[in-house]
Fold each of these.
Amino acid sequence: MNEPKKKNPWLEVFRRLKKNRLAMLGLVVVLLLIGTSVFAPVIAPYSYEDQDLLAAFESPSKAHWFGTDEFGRDIFSRIVYGSRISLQVGLVAVSFSIMIGGFLGALAGYYGGRIDNVIMRIMDVLFSVPQLLLAISVAASLGPGLFNLMIAVGISSVPQYARLVRASVLSIREQEFIEAARSIGAKDLKIIFRHILPNCMAPIIVQGTLGVAFAILTAAGLSFIGLGIQPPIPEWGAMLSGGREYIRDHSYMTMFPGMAIMITILALNFLGDGLRDALDPKLKN
Amino acid sequence: MFKYIFKRALMLVPVLIGVTFIVFTMLYITPGDPARMVLGEQAPQESVDQLRQDMGLNDPFLVQFGRYVYKAVFHGDIGRSYITKRPVVQEILAAFPVTLKLSAMAMIIAMVIGIPCGIVSAIKQYSLFDNLVTIFAMIGISMPVFWLGILLILLFSVRLGWVPPSGFDSFSTMILPAVTLGAQSIAIITRMTRSSMLEVVRQDYIRTVRAKGQKERIVIWKHALGNALIPVVTISGIQFGILLGGAVLTELIFSIPGVGRLMVESIKMRDFPVVQGGVLFIAVAFCVVNLLVDLIYAWLDPRIKAQYVS
């Protein structure tokens, strides 16, 4: 991979990204978060579901850094385990929407004409339902559960990626190397997957990073409503929602999950913005 | 102009049919038998079967969809609530003005704060004010609406006691929910105004205006702002739709009797016709808002209108 003579374009991107302090901060936080979710059992001092009613509603202390909830469960441990859920939802939902939306967008952009028209009008319809509402609507129909939550959040972002990929494909389709590939008899699908899509990666990566942030936020919102993950699995939005009843006397119960969500989203947004600048310096501002 | 308005309104029809299709499909795939939901758990199987027949639930999917659209368009009937047995339209119409009012207030707050902040931020690029605005905008975008709402209640209702924590009848009870809902839009509109303004002031015609010695104030307000606001209008339209959708969470936190809370309560009671009715209403409202935005857009930028009129 690392041939010394040939400049790796991704290294070049990383070099530019390194100059952006906020983006690097975002990257570090995201990496920490991934580490936290992978090593959750090692980091969390308690289990996320063991109840200890004698220790309920304890304010933050040395024994319980973020305090305990109404069942005496350690909030810090639940937030640590909750990172697994949030990252999982974020990554799976975004992969889902990139796969579906990207595929539809590529078809629409590559073939144009009628296929383009049909696909994009369907996307317009999906676009005309506010995203959170679309996710709520799908989640309500599918019922609660982690997998359904991912699908609901994923579907609501499909049109975005379809539009994005279509626009990129349109700009690449007419270039000479595509014509060259076609002239040596490459099949359409091969041209799309081998030649066109790899060249639209930059906007997809940027949108995907910001999309993970959005997906986590939406998933937390759905859980807050009660449409997402069922207890006792710890999910930040659901924890916030649970703590809302006790806001008068135990505000820390809502403070820490809220902070966890915000820091995650902030980090992903910093990283996404930084990636956009690094991948395409022309787009700055 | 009328021709343009007519053409643009006509384009709404397929979108609305599409939205109805989505909503109907959601209802269709929802697990559980609607006839059973109407009659309750204890009802004998024969009466459920009879009702299924009467409701046309045994017909093919497309026939049912056709009937749904027909009833919706010609009778304003999109089903009845399983729980209250009242028509869904009535249930939603009772709650809809509240949601609309909340979203409109949030939108006004977002524009009144966002646009000036964006302009000043762009004029004084890289100043302390600009940096502060940029940071606040980033935080605003990353802040979960429901958490912001809880924090505001905690600060202004629980600690300071300035405003009641719930309700939606007077200005003092409306201000917290509107700020909560609008916060993200403030951030987005600020960023959009800033970047659009920066883009415009770099253009040649602005340099020309400056070169002829025009006062900076007039350069900005008279020459730059009009063009800079065009993308802001677009994004504001999109934001309004997001606000209508986002109102669900805000209404839940502040116990506001709008469509959002109605939907969430209906989800809990598995009253799906009301849930999907809410989605339909908000989506239609979103489409109408987008139509209005497009018309404003055409009024601001004659080039767009020309595409349709020619």
Note: Chain B touches chain A through 51 residues (CB under 8 Å).
Amino acid sequence: MNIPARGSLLGIERLEAKEILGLLKLARRMNPQKARPLLRGKRIVLLFYEASTRTRSSFEFAAKSLGAMTTLVQSSGSSIEKGESLLDTGYTLRAVGADCIVIRHPSAGAPHLMAQHLDIPIINAGDGMHEHPSQALLDAFTILKHKKTLKGLQATIIGDIFHSRVARSACHLLTKFGVKLTLCGPPEFVPEVAATLVPGLRITRHIEDALRGTDVIMLLRVQKERLAGQKIRLQDYIARYQMTTARLKLAKRDAIVMHPGPIIRGLELTAEVADGPQSVIVDEVHNGVPTRMAILARALGKAK
Amino acid sequence: MLTAKSQKRDSASLLIKGGHVIDPAAKINAAMDILLRDGRVTEVALPNKIRGGADQKFDARGLIVAPGFIDLHVHLREPGQSYKETIASGTAAASASGFTSVCTMPNTQPVVDTAEWVAWLRNPERGAVVNVFPIAAATRGSRGGTLTDFAALQRAGAVAVTDDGKPILDDDVMRMALRLGAEVNFPVVQHAEDTRLTENCSMHAGPTSFRLGLRAMPAAAEAAIVDRDVTLAQQIRESRLHVAHLSTADALKSVRRGKRAKARVTCEVAPHHFTLIDENVGEYDTNFKMNPPLRSAADREAILVALADGTVDAIATDHAPHAAHEKQVEFERASFGITGLETALALAITRLHREQKIPLTRIVELFTAGPARVFDLPGRGSLVRGSHADVTIFDPKKRWTFEAAKSHSLSHNTPFDGWQFTGRVVATIVGGKIVYRIE
């Protein structure tokens, strides 16, 4: 097996803090409104084995804002439907002339497999329950628009952490910069083993405890179909963990509310919180484009 | 090393001279010469005491001479999946690994659940170079429902029954299997996995699976089944339970409980489970994916203790060859299993003897007398006079590097490619014939 090509982004876990800072700095200089043809002539494949609205469209706009060509390959309507393996799909796309592959896949580690066998940069746009590095980066970007620095901040992630790649990437990123991080939810969603992910993670079952004095609140989508198999009932979850205006008051006055989307109003949060003054949910989506421009510019060696 | 004399005699004979014999069943651990004739051990004597000539002599100076190794658990993939392995290629790999006997698992295509298929496996046309002892399916098609005809399978040459690859999950079916096994003196080999807890899982449940975002098998999925089975084995007189590829500390507790109660409960451990742990999966390396999965460091520690203290009866490889295209896929989609024959002795000597200080006599026991007892293989697992002339000769000090590409197996799905080992097989003798000799 080979080392991933330079510029690949497989996860946050193995990135050094200075690489993350470099990407964030680059993202701040990216302006989707003012196209820069940094990647003119480059071919970027968006290989999506799973549904996506935000990630896919923002990677596409990011690529096009930099002058690259993009093509979307999805599992339906491609040879994947006919049983082509992941690696054969990768070799095919490479042969077609892909300079970079952005991949979303339901299996954890799928981007790693691609990166071990292809000599072009592979960007992980979400792999199973593992990581979603571009989301963590755009979240850090968003936090830094509202807070001076990450160091010393208190943050809490509430919801289904077990199934969440967003949560895993966020845990890696935030703790690398000295954020004091609390995970909150029922044991089905936040098992004790979650605390082993990175040193210094704290787990609490009580949302009031999680929110007190916090600067950043990250909510995760509750997937009803996942609740179905669990012992926990939807109404109980809402009663114990829904983010409401009243609960929000427990956090710092200038705390921000984040959510990677898609949000389900009335479930993990109320509409008032989603649309309230402390919500930065729309900002996050907006910041996805410059962040992904930076990721692609770095991937294709044009990060100057 | 080998000198052929004139072939005047009708009977083929082989004198192994100058070696150090370790035969735990006979309590021998001394410099001895051994004479093999007509497929049997005819003399074991102090150095230079064997009179008369032999057709061949084997100079075993500086080497350990042991009873032929027995592997209780291999997948040779025939019938049906000869692109992964064949009886011929798998037994060639076995011979190069010091195994003179292998017990084949029935989860082939079709499943070996009839006397005809057992006979097919034993047919010389398969090209086996070591002894093949088929283990037949315990239930028809290994579907976990109706029991197979144990007596007929036994008459055809099967040595045990199992639904390996899958557990016998249903309490009543397991109870009936142990009862019928008791009637015909057949061990029931259990792949202990509560599959209700392991659906879509691809590794052991712990910090590593959480970090990698992989659905994972709790240790309890194994321990719960072993616990139930041991309880059943205690209740059913004369029943024989053998726990395949045991991997958890809690399952060992149940096995110890059964043994203390004098139930006929045995277990085997695979070299990868005493060597590796879940963390070694690294970045989704599918050569570290097997079932049962690599467990926690604490589980490995418990296994090492049980190997040393006698709780474990045998080292068995669970040799599970797969083609490259079945492993070079997403971790969750990759086939379970690794090849294991050619690294078994080297791992045992390197990890157990040199690092854990387990005596060589105990290691030889785990490859010989132990497994022979588990499946009751008469005349195997010892070099006492009259035994089958199956001998394994190895150099416990030889340093070497394992290269998967040079493997004798058709498949190369091993996590040990490039590993440096101490301890290597020098020659393998089956029925008095040298079937493997190191170049």
Note: DSSP finds twelve helices and nine strands in chain A.
